[in-house]
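User: C-alpha cells for FLZ-type domain-containing protein, please.
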Amino acid sequence: MGGAGHFLDACFLCRKPLAGNRDIFMYRGDTAFCSEDCRSAQMAADEAAERTAVTHGALPLPATAAEGPPQPEQHGKVGRPGSILAL
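Assistant: Done. Predicted C-alpha cells:
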C-alpha cells in the first residue's frame, strides 16, 4: 500500500525528514515542521492567505471589540434572525 506517509515523517514545508532525536515544531495541531523557521514561514503564509481571503470577500471580517456583543432587537424580539429561542 503506497500513499502519503505519516504527518510526522517529514517537514510540511521543506519535506526534510523528521527523524532521530531532534525537535519537531507543531502548528495547528497536526502540521509538523523541522524548525522554527519553517513553522514561522507557514504561519506567515497562512496569515497572508487569510488577509487576502478577507479582502476579496471569501471570509467575513472578524468582529472587533469596539462592536461589542450583539444587542437584542426591539419590539420584544431577542436574538438574531434564524435563532431558535426557548421560552
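User: Anything notable?

Assistant: The mean pLDDT is 76.
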